[in-house]
């Protein structure tokens, strides 16, 4: 075995290594003729013929171009027939969807199996054409022919967002984007190299950074979004922080524009000219890797994948622990431990000596070996390093083996997905960043179900998603009859509690197997999730029932609105009628939005009184009295038909009469009356001194005496007609007694008027009433007559007049002695 | 119209002082709920770049001000705040964020805004984001689609559900629940309540036991249990590993329909009376500025509170105000005395300055003075409020209504009570007051006699207008105002077996929850008491056994009474797969907590009564009250009263 350091190259104080991962499976692919997009995290490559490059027409070459999807190991996944216009740019999303942007602003998103969805980025793009696109993992920015920028920040719900006008009239020398997660504002920023400077554009403004070193012909943002590499037309490479506050390094290459300028991890920049790859370190210095064919660089978070016709390589800075262990002449504890194992296997006593010398640092050495194992591609090295760690563990009294176990697990997973048939060359660091869940998703989308399930079971994760996806694709592809498929699917999924079947059923439905869909849907545990499918399956009644069952009223509305749209009204009502929950919701919806529908609904359900109430309510919205009366008449008719509400029927009749009377009154007195109740009408008539008409209304509507007296009393007090009040009091024996007279006068602060009626009140009330109008003397007398000791005391306390107080004291003592 | 819209709101809607300082002092750390809501709000605001205008649902500006202060909004780019109202929106903000309840009328306004904007300016001049609280709904989205503005708006959700008003009070602040739920039988709020409770369980652990009374309570409980089952679909692990709550040992759900009587009674606690007279909204009360200002000359003695709206000042009422914390739950009868005492103490504290001779002593006094000033300020406010309340409670009308009410509830009503109601109608007293008494009368007596029923209906229609045919029909549907069909006096039986009427009440040193209504114990809280203090009311068991709910007997012993009340009674136990059914361990020394959920709303007085229950438990048990909204008799009845437009602006 070659020493691990064989492929290392020193650059300043650190090492870089370039390791071959795969020999490509593809044949005769000339990368220079293609437009290429590669997904990060060891993802697939998309190749499409670059129509700007001349290509030799060969025999049997299809006339129509295709997009070819390959794994990192060069295995063809799926050719996509391309039938649309010119592709301006391609990029990959974080969910491994290939995004193709066309000249006319159409965007197509393909999954890895070539199925696509499509949207447009708007009229501006269509009119002026898209001339270039930049991508990040969750969005894209398009540059149009009129040099406007349009961003799409969310592929789930794409919405084109025009950015601020950069105000340029020619294409930028180069441009790039800073993804939202790295900017201060959390929104995307676009960097445009214009003249000798850079414009930073976001949704609100275009800011000139006022740089002098341009024009910049290439730009690249580091994977952590902190740094920006700029290549000037003079052939210099300049690295600054992305806020342009700090200049980090500058290096003269003296060359022309590189074909690619990418970051290798976060500390070095890699430039690629035809036949040459140049690695520039952060503190000057460089390494060269010559190639004799064209290649393509894929930046990763911790290095670069180099794709060539022959192979796939990985270029990275050698991790620190790895340098510690394998570095020539290293005496780091981990290196000693690794060495000790070697001695031990050779049965050399030096093993013991080594261990002794690092006794104190042994735990760190063990951990370092474990970590280093994670950074190795070669199974043999992985094994050796883990063995070393394991060997070191023996000398430790207390050691937590979790990290060891964990690393073993991770390495098994990584080795499995790195296998060339799968072709995902994930590094340990990338795996940590990507998360196991996302890795599983990627395997699912490649239909690697078995591997995905094995990994899930191994890592103790849920297998639901895999099973669902498997079932879906099984249904799509299978030719068996529906019963067999159902049995097959259910068998596999049986002992998984809480697994959602709705997606599977939906797939079956879309594949035209509605019987299967219905069978499968029965297994869905969530009522709510069954609804959308039932709706698209035209199982209307079932959908409504399930929606109600879910308790989610919004879902019920969802179904109701859909049904209302597509069914004839009669059928719609029939469906709703026997479901009280749905009826209630329909009612409250209609009350706000669709009163006509509500009337129909009430009518067909024979709810005439409710319908009548609707008309009654409408009447209050009519300005014109005649319209008002007509509406009320409609209500009356409905109530009459109904026959079950004689009281309301009579009341509505009365309402019509009232409105008619009020119309007459309005003519006679040119005052508004409509809208007033009977009592208020009478009140108003007395206020405007029309007591005769008031009296007539009273008799017309058979108003009880008590109420009529009260109204008259209050109205007269209101206009201060004290004689009127007195006349009323004297007219006949008051049906409401005389206390109200006193109280109303008191409220109007007319104490003298009030006094007139006190003696007409019940004897036991008089003292209190006198007290209210501050007639202490009389109050005292009355209280004394009633032998009301408590009131007497109260009067004495409140009375300001000493003379009267004395009198009351006399009453009190008189009463006291009488007891 | 719109300019006035634009102007005022920003200043008025959010108070300047930091909110929520009074939260987070119990073992549940309610404050964390508020922090969550706050963080999400920040995300909502940051989703749009640059400076922005915020357009708020008027019903949400209150709850939101409990979550975040204006400065926070400003820090995140909010330049102006508007209320979401009909009519065009004129603004110089280019980015607009709407935050509102998913109600169709709001969609109407928003569509109108967008239409006017596109007419005036080129399309794309404004960006619109709309956040639904707590979630987007099909109804609203359909409206936006029909209005042709769906594509213009970026839509999202702001999951604001239970808003912490106090350490022991959480509210959905969903004002229309009562009407929606019981009249329209629209169960949306149950769904939201279930979601909110599931979220609480996510934070505090599963409630080991769920008890309740009433059909909707049962529906809520069932929905929670189902949601837990369905949770397995999303996250099997979480559903299985969810622990039982360490602090909360039970959830008690009380359905408003079980006890309609209590909210109709006039509240007699301090906070309750403030609510009755001034109406507390989202824990803020609007009062005349003279009440809080420096001058103590409270407006000329008349009890007409809120006579001049518009320039009223919003004052926060919460536990952050120490004095209010002491007063809120007391019967108003003792508030005056306590205020007096506090005034004397503060005065004495001020006088201490004379004793401060040495420099350290003076410094000590100065340090203390800050607190004194705050206390003084609060004392001034509460004295003024108490004075206003006093003016109101001294009136004849108030006292006669109260007397009628108490007679009705105590079942000692004669024909004087209906007579008084008739007189109120004749005097054209506010309809809500009349209906409050009449409904109370009907509820307690199992309906009105046929003749009486017709009479009152006729009187009301002729006095207040024929639109109330609908009001009366609604009240009939709700069972609040009905015709007597049998004379069986169920309420009387309930009253007796749960001793709702307590004759001797000591307001100064109460020994029973009935102090809150000066002699009437709210049925709703009595039911809670049944569960937690078993044996005390039933009289079968000594007070020694306060076993608590988790190990206790639930409703046992009260089956007969519960049967007389409407709706189902239930007692469910939630288990976790591998554990014991109930967690026996609990944090040392910390009281167990019962969550009491009032579905359909509760009154401040019920909250006070529940707090009193806690005080009787001697630190063994605490209560946290959840509710869909806080209501009182006026707001409850008013929500049912049919409103019609006054097209003629006629004067009465």
UniProtKB/TrEMBL annotation, chain A:
SUPFAM superfamilies: WD40 repeat-like. Residues 4-405 form the Vps16 N-terminal domain. GO terms for molecular function: actin binding. Residues 499-801 form the Vps16 C-terminal domain. Keywords: Protein transport, Transport. One of its GO terms (biological process) is intracellular protein transport. It holds the Pfam family Vps16_N. One of its GO terms (cellular component) is bounding membrane of organelle. InterPro entries: VPS16, Vps16_C, Vps16_C_sf, Vps16_N, WD40/YVTN_repeat-like_dom_sf, WD40_repeat_dom_sf. Essential for vacuolar protein sorting. Required for vacuole biogenesis, stability and to maintain vacuole morphology. Belongs to the VPS16 family. This is Probable vacuolar protein sorting-associated protein 16 homolog.
UniProtKB/TrEMBL annotation, chain B:
GO terms for biological process: vesicle-mediated transport. Residues 1-24 are annotated as: Disordered. Pfam families: Sec1. Residues 1-16 have a biased composition (Low complexity). Signal peptide: none annotated. It comes from the Eukaryota. PANTHER family: VESICLE PROTEIN SORTING-ASSOCIATED. Belongs to the STXBP/unc-18/SEC1 family. This is Vacuolar protein sorting-associated protein 33A. It comes from Entomortierella parvispora.
């Amino acid at each position: 075995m070659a020493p691990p350091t064989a492929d290392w190259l020193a650059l300043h104080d650190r090492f870089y290594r370039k390791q071959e991962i795969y020999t490509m499976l593809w044949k005769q692919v000339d990368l220079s003729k293609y437009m290429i997009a590669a997904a990060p995290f060891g993802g697939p490559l998309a190749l499409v013929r670059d129509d700007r490059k001349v290509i030799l027409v060969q025999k049997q070459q299809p006339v129509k171009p295709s997009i070819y999807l390959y794994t990192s190991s060069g295995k063809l996944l799926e050719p996509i027939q391309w039938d649309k216009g010119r592709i301006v740019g391609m990029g990959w999303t974080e969910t491994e969807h290939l995004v193709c942007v066309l000249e006319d602003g159409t965007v197509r998103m393909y999954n890895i199996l070539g199925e696509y969805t499509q949207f447009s980025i708007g009229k501006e793009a269509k009119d002026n054409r898209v001339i270039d696109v930049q991508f990040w993992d969750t969005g894209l920015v398009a540059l149009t022919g009129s040099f406007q920028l349009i961003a799409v920040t969310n592929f789930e719900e794409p919405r084109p967002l025009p950015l601020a006008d950069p105000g340029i009239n020619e294409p930028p020398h180069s441009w790039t984007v800073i993804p939202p997660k790295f900017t201060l504002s959390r929104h995307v920023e676009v960097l445009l190299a214009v003249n000798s400077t850079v414009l930073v554009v976001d949704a609100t403004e275009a800011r000139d950074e006022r740089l002098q070193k341009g024009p910049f012909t290439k730009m690249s943002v580091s994977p952590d979004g902190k740094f920006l590499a700029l290549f000037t037309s003079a052939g210099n490479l300049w690295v600054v922080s992305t806020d342009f506050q700090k200049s980090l390094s500058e290096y003269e290459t003296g060359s022309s524009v590189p074909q690619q300028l990418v970051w290798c991890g976060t500390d070095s920049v890699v430039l690629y000219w035809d036949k040459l790859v140049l690695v520039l370190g952060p503190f000057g210095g460089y390494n060269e890797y010559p190639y004799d064919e064209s290649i393509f660089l894929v930046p990763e978070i911790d290095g670069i994948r180099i794709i060539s016709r022959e192979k796939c390589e990985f270029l990275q800075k050698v991790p620190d622990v790895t340098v510690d262990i394998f570095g020539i002449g290293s005496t780091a504890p981990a290196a000693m431990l690794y060495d000790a194992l070697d001695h031990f296997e050779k049965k050399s006593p030096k093993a013991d000596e080594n261990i002794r010398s690092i006794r104190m640092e042994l735990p760190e050495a063990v951990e370092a070996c474990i970590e280093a194992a994670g950074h190795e591609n070669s199974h043999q090295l992985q094994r050796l390093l883990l063995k070393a760690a394991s060997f070191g563990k023996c000398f430790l009294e207390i050691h937590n083996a979790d990290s060891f176990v964990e690393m073993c697990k991770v390495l098994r997973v990584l080795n499995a997905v790195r296998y060339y048939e799968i072709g995902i060359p994930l590094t340990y660091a990338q795996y940590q960043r990507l998360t196991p869940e996302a890795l599983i998703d990627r395997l699912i989308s490649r239909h690697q179900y078995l591997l995905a399930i094995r990994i899930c079971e191994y890592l103790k994760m849920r297998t639901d998603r895999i099973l669902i996806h498997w079932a879906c694709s099984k249904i799509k592809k299978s030719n068996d009859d529906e019963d067999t498929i159902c049995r097959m699917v259910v068998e596999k999924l049986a002992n998984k509690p809480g697994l959602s079947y709705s997606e599977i059923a939906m797939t079956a439905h879309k594949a035209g197997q509605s019987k299967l869909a219905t069978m499968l849907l029965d297994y869905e545990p969530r009522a709510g999730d069954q609804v959308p499918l039932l709706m698209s399956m035209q199982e209307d009644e079932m959908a409504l029932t399930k929606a109600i069952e879910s308790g989610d009223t919004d879902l019920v509305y969802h179904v109701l609105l859909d049904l209302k749209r597509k069914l004839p009204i009669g059928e719609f009502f029939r469906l709703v009628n026997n479901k009280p929950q749905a009826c209630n919701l329909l009612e409250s919806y209609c009350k706000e939005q669709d009163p006509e529908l509500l009337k129909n609904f009430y009518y067909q359900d024979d709810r005439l009184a409710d319908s009548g109430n609707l008309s009654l309510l409408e009447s209050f919205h009519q300005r014109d009295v005649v319209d008002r009366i007509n509406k009320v008449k409609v209500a009356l008719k409905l109530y009459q038909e109904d026959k079950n509400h004689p009281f309301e029927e009579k009341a509505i009749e009365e309402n019509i009469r009232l409105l008619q009377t009020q119309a007459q009154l309005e003519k006679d007195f040119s005052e508004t009356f409509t809208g007033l109740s009977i009592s208020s009408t009478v009140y108003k008539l007395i206020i405007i001194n029309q007591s005769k008409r008031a009296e007539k209304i009273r008799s017309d509507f058979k108003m009880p005496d008590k109420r009529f007296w009260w109204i008259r009393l209050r109205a007269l007090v209101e206009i201060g007609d004290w004689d009127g009040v007195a006349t009323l009091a004297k007219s006949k024996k008051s049906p409401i007694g005389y206390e109200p007279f006193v109280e109303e006068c008191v409220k109007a602060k007319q104490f003298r008027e009030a006094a007139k009626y006190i003696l007409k009140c019940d004897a036991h009330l008089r003292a209190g009433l006198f007290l209210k109008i501050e007639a202490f003397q009389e109050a005292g007398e009355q209280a004394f007559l009633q032998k009301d000791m408590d009131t007497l005391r109260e009067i004495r306390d409140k009375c300001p007049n000493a003379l009267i107080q004395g009198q009351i004291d006399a009453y009190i003592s008189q009463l006291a002695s009488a007891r | 119209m719109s300019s006035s819209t634009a102007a005022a709101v920003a200043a008025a809607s959010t108070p300047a002082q930091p909110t929520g300082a009074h939260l987070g002092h119990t073992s549940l750390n309610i404050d964390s709920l508020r922090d969550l809501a706050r963080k999400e709000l920040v995300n909502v605001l940051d989703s749009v770049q640059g400076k922005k205008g915020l357009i708020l649902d008027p019903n949400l500006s209150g709850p939101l001000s409990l979550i975040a202060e204006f400065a926070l909004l400003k820090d995140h780019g909010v330049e102006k705040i508007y209320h979401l109202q009909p009519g065009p929106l004129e603004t110089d903000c280019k980015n607009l964020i709407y935050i509102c309840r998913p109600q169709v009328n709001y969609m109407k306004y928003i569509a109108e805004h967008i239409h006017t904007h596109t007419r005036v300016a080129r399309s794309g001049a404004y960006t619109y984001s709309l956040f639904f609280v707590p979630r987007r709904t099909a109804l609203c989205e359909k409206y936006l689609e029909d209005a042709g503005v769906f594509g213009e708006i970026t839509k999202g959700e702001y999951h604001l559900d239970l808003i912490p008003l106090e350490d022991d009070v959480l509210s959905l602040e969903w004002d229309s629940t009562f009407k929606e739920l019981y009249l329209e039988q629209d169960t949306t709020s149950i769904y939201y309540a279930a979601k909110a409770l599931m979220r609480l369980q996510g934070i505090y652990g599963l409630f080991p036991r769920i008890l309740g009374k009433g059909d909707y309570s049962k529906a809520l409980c069932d929905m929670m249990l189902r949601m837990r089952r369905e949770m397995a679909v999303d996250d099997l692990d979480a559903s299985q590993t969810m622990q039982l709550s360490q602090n909360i040992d039970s959830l008690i759900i009380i359905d408003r329909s079980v006890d309609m009587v209590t909210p109709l009674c006039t509240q007699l606690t301090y906070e309750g009376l403030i609510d009755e007279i001034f109406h507390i909204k989202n824990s803020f009360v609007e009062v005349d500025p003279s009440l809080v200002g420096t001058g103590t000359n409270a407006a000329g003695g008349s009890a007409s509170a809120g006579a001049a709206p518009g320039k009223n000042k919003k004052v926060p009422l919460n536990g952050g105000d120490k004095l209010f914390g002491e007063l809120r739950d007391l019967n108003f009868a003792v508030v005056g005395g306590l205020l007096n005492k506090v005034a004397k103490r503060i005065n004495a504290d001020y006088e201490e300055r004379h004793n401060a001779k040495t420099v350290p002593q003076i410094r000590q006094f100065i340090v203390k003075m800050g607190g004194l000033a705050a206390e003084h300020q609060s004392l001034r406010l509460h004295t003024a409020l108490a004075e206003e309340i006093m003016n109101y409670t001294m009136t004849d009308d108030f006292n006669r209504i109260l007397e009628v009410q108490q007679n009705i509830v105590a079942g000692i009503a004669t024909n004087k009570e209906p007579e008084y109601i008739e007189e109120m109608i004749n005097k054209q007293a506010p309809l809500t007051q009349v209906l409050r008494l009449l409904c109370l009368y009907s509820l307690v007596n199992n309906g009105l006699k046929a003749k009486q029923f017709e009479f009152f209906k006729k009187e009301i229609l002729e006095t207040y207008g024929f639109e109330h045919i609908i009001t009366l029909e609604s009240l009939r549907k709700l069972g609040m105002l009905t015709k007597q069909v049998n004379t069986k006096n169920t309420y009387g039986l309930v009253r007796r077996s749960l001793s709702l009427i307590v004759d001797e009440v000591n307001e100064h040193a109460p020994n029973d929850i009935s102090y809150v209504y000066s002699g009437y114990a709210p049925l709703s809280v009595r039911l809670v008491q049944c569960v937690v203090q078993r044996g005390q009311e039933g009289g079968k068991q000594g007070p020694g056994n306060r076993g608590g709910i988790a190990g206790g007997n639930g409703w046992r012993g009260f089956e007969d009474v519960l049967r007389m009340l409407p709706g189902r009674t239930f007692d469910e136990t939630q288990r976790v797969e591998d554990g014991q059914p109930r967690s026996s361990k609990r944090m040392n020394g910390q009281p167990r907590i019962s969550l009491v959920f009032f579905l359909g709303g509760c009154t401040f007085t019920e909250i006070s009564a529940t707090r009193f229950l806690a005080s009787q438990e001697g630190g063994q048990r605490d209560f946290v009250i959840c509710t869909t909204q806080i209501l009182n008799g006026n707001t409850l009845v008013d929500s049912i009263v049919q409103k019609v437009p006054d097209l003629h602006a006629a004067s009465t």
